[in-house]
């Protein structure tokens, strides 16, 4: 039946009746009560439009009346309307234009206001994107802002010793060269971490990069402007806390990348509870005094000491090497299909090499009665490839201790084993390299 | 589509505007209030073209403000489903692209981009045919068909498609 209808009137365009209806309504009267009415009419029409090719003929015959064939439409839509509504923009399906309920799927407000996608569509996009990316020999990299790439402070929180900075700020006209910026309209001062520009430049050749920060949207965009004035690295891939799906948590669900190909650079491990395996933990960058105080350090900040991280040997330099290593291993060393490779596995392997061959015994590190193999340091050491033992034996290479006076510490000295401070493990964890033991000497405590 | 229609609005005017220039004040306030706004019913008010008439003012008790019913002619813009529009691409990403036709924001999903056009990432993301002859990127002009509209109090959203005959790029800034 529908076929015959179509052949009867093949030239009818679907726009004209909508237009006719609009004119019709508008000619009737211009009062406001009409608005709702026509809106209703509109929605009914929208519903009907799904099958407009089939139904046009009836509308043509009688464009002013309400849908004469609702039953028929419903029937037809059962047959014809197979749209899965993969996502919505402004509450309309991106595929068929039909009005949808607001709250389904994941919002992608950071890409464009009003955009939402369903899970199936996200999976589909990730898959196609993955192939595209692998062809360009790239992976994904999610970057945190504060304490990772830069450090910001409120102007009112600046200490008197930091006042000198206000005369040393770089011009906002050409941000691509400077590293210290006064954003007076946000009442903030921001210091970029040394080496960050070179870092971004080199990383952008290996990775598709995202910014993901717990700051708000305005702040995130402002920082993106400082880091990437030409908009060549991040384009619209700037995610702020307003865009996340969970409070106080960061998640990869709003990142359009396969989890097996995402690396995360962040200074806060707790923010990524679900994605610890993707995370490369950064040593925090504290330039301003307020940032030190916030984390409970009472020492002088870099700004007060008029000092800074090394441009040639800082944390970002180290991490860039690790990133290159992961990237190289992922593409060149692993066997098997590219799509099946997993960057988390690579990360684990590389991490395991850091303290490979070390056998550790801890002394006076864990509180008494604490189950040792649950402790953070223990797990960290194992993650770095060391073997941890509870009791001494001749194969032990390092004793990790906070006190040189303990029995195990003295044993270490006597048998010419390394005696190191727990910070030795933490440093290795941050720097991805076994550190010289002599830099982590354990001090004698005064009490016997 | 554009329409030239007559609309009515009650304007409240502060007594300080009374005097010889009352009418001018009224009109300039009307323009300021109405032009550029959006109504669910009529779409986007582009410009006021003339005043039909100004009714009798009514003095409000207590405030001294006077309300004038003003009838005015204006050009409005409202997109319709099925309408063909020309728009400028504002953003291209793996989900599709966003375009603007004046105040109207249009999203074209990659489902509704011809299958032979593939997404290319990079600092200038774009959709390109396999032979490279057609490219959609930021600032390209495209002809598209509206398949869904939603008119808010302040914004108009549309869903568009270019997967149809005679739709797609009409001018390519990269080629120019």
TrEMBL record, chain A:
Keyword Glycoprotein appears in the UniProt entry: no
The UniProt GO MF terms for this protein read: metal ion binding; RNA binding; RNA polymerase II CTD heptapeptide repeat phosphatase activity
Q: Which domain of life is it from?
A: Eukaryota
Q: Which reaction does it catalyse?
A: O-phospho-L-threonyl-[protein] + H2O = L-threonyl-[protein] + phosphate; O-phospho-L-seryl-[protein] + H2O = L-seryl-[protein] + phosphate
Q: Which SMART domains match?
A: BRCT, CPDc
- Taking every annotated instance into account, which residue ranges of this chain make up the domain FCP1 homology? 134-305
Which InterPro entries does this entry report, sorted A to Z? BRCT_dom (IPR001357), BRCT_dom_sf (IPR036420), Fcp1 (IPR039189), FCP1_dom (IPR004274), FCP1_euk (IPR011947), HAD-like_sf (IPR036412), HAD_sf (IPR023214)
Residues of the region (Disordered) are 25-73
Task: Tell where it localizes.
Answer: Nucleus
Q: Please give the chief subcellular localization of this protein.
A: nucleus
Enzyme class name:
hydrolase
Tell me which residues make up the BRCT domain: 350-442
Q: What is its EC number?
A: 3.1.3.16
> Key word Transit peptide present in the record?
no
Biological process annotations from GO: response to salt stress
Q: Which UniProt keywords apply?
A: Hydrolase, Metal-binding, Nucleus, Repressor, RNA-binding, Transcription, Transcription regulation
Which cofactors are required for activity?
Mn(2+); Mg(2+); Co(2+)
Q: Name one GO cellular component term.
A: nucleus
Q: Where is the composition biased (Acidic residues)?
A: 31-40
User: NCBIfam families in the record, alphabetically?
Assistant: FCP1_euk (TIGR02250)
Role of this protein: This promotes the activity of RNA polymerase II.
Its quaternary structure?
Answer: Interacts with RAP74.
The protein depicted here goes by the name RNA polymerase II C-terminal domain phosphatase-like
Gene designation: LOC108993186
From TrEMBL, chain B:
Q: Which portions of this protein are annotated as coiled-coil regions?
A: none
Q: What are the UniProt keywords, alphabetically?
A: DNA-directed RNA polymerase, Nucleus, Transcription
Record-annotated membrane-spanning stretches: none
Give all residue intervals belonging to the RNA polymerase Rpb7-like N-terminal domain. 8-64
- In this chain the S1 motif domain maps to 79-156
In alphabetical order, the GO MF annotations are: single-stranded DNA binding; single-stranded RNA binding; translation initiation factor binding
Establish whether keyword Transport is in the entry. no
Q: Which domain of life is it from?
A: Eukaryota
Its main subcellular localisation, reduced to a broad class, is: nucleus
- Keyword Nucleus in the entry? The reply is yes
Q: What's one GO BP annotation on this UniProt entry? A: positive regulation of nuclear-transcribed mRNA poly(A) tail shortening
One Pfam short name:
SHS2_Rpb7-N
Which InterPro entries has this protein been placed in? NA-bd_OB-fold (IPR012340), RNA_pol_Rpb7-like_N_sf (IPR036898), Rpb7-like (IPR045113), Rpb7-like_N (IPR005576), S1_domain (IPR003029)
Provide a GO CC annotation, any one.
Answer: RNA polymerase II, core complex
What subcellular compartments does it reside in? Nucleus
> What function does the entry list?
DNA-dependent RNA polymerase which catalyzes the transcription of DNA into RNA using the four ribonucleoside triphosphates as substrates.
The family note in this entry says:
Belongs to the eukaryotic RPB7/RPC8 RNA polymerase subunit family.
Give the protein name, as stated in the record.
Answer: DNA-directed RNA polymerase subunit
Q: Whose protein is this, by species?
A: Carya illinoinensis
């Amino acid at each position: 039946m529908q076929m015959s209808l179509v052949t009867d009137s093949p030239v009818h365009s679907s726009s004209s009746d909508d237009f006719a209806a609009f004119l019709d309504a508008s000619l009737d009267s211009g009062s406001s009560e009409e608005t709702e009415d026509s809106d209703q009419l509109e929605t009914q029409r929208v519903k009907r439009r799904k099958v407009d090719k089939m139904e046009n003929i009836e509308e043509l015959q009688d464009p002013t009346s309400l849908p004469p064939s609702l039953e028929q439409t419903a029937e037809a839509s059962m047959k014809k309307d197979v749209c899965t509504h993969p996502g919505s923009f402004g509450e309309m399906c991106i595929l068929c234009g039909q009005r949808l309920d607001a709250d389904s799927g994941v919002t992608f407000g950071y890409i464009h206001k009003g955009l939402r996608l369903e899970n199936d569509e996200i999976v589909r996009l990730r898959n196609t994107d993955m192939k595209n990316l692998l062809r360009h020999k790239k992976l994904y990299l999610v970057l945190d802002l504060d304490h990772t790439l830069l450090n910001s402070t409120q102007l009112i929180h600046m200490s008197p010793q930091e006042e000198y900075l206000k005369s040393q700020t770089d011009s906002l006209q050409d941000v691509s060269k400077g590293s210290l910026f006064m954003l007076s309209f946000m009442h903030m001062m921001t210091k970029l971490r040394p080496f960050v520009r070179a870092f971004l430049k080199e990383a952008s050749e290996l990775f598709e990069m995202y910014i993901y920060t717990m700051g708000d949207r305005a702040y995130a965009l402002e920082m993106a402007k400082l880091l990437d004035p030409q908009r060549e690295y991040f384009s619209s891939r700037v995610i702020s806390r307003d865009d996340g799906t969970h409070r106080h948590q960061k998640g990869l669900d709003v990142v359009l990348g396969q989890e097996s190909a995402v690396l995360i650079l962040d200074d806060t491990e707790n923010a990524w509870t679900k994605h610890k395996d993707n995370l490369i933990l950064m040593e925090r960058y504290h330039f301003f005094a307020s940032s030190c105080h916030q984390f409970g350090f009472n020492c002088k900040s870099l700004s007060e000491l008029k000092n800074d991280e090394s441009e040639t040997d800082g944390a970002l330099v180290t991490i860039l090497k690790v990133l290159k290593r992961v990237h190289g291993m992922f593409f060149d060393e692993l066997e098997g299909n590219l799509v099946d490779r997993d960057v988390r596995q690579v990360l684990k392997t590389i991490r395991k090499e850091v303290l490979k061959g070390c056998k550790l015994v801890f002394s006076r590190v864990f509180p008494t009665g604490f189950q040792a193999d649950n402790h953070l340091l223990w797990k960290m050491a194992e993650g770095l490839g060391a073997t941890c033992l509870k009791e001494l034996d001749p194969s032990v290479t390092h004793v990790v201790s906070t006190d040189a006076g303990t029995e195990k510490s003295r044993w270490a000295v006597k048998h010419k084993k390394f005696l190191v401070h727990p910070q030795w493990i933490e440093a290795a964890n941050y720097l991805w390299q076994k550190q010289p033991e002599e830099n982590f000497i354990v001090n004698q405590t005064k009490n016997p | 589509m554009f329409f030239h229609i007559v609309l009515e609005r009650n304007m409240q005017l502060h007594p300080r505007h009374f005097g010889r220039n009352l009418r001018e004040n009224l009109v300039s306030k009307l323009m300021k209030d109405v032009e550029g706004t959006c109504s669910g019913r009529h779409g986007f008010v582009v410009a006021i073209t003339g005043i039909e008439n100004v009714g009798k003012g009514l003095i409000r008790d207590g405030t001294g403000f006077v309300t004038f019913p003003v009838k005015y002619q204006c050009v409005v813009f409202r997109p319709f489903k099925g309408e063909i529009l020309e728009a400028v691409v504002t953003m291209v990403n793996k989900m599709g692209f966003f375009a603007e036709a004046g105040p109207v924001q249009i999203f074209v999903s990659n489902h509704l981009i011809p299958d032979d056009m593939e997404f290319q990432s990079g600092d200038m993301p774009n959709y390109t045919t396999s032979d490279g002859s057609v490219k959609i990127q930021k600032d390209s002009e495209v002809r598209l068909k509206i398949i869904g509209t939603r008119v808010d109090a302040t914004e108009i959203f549309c869903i568009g498609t270019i997967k149809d005959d005679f739709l797609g790029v009409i001018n390519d800034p990269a080629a120019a």
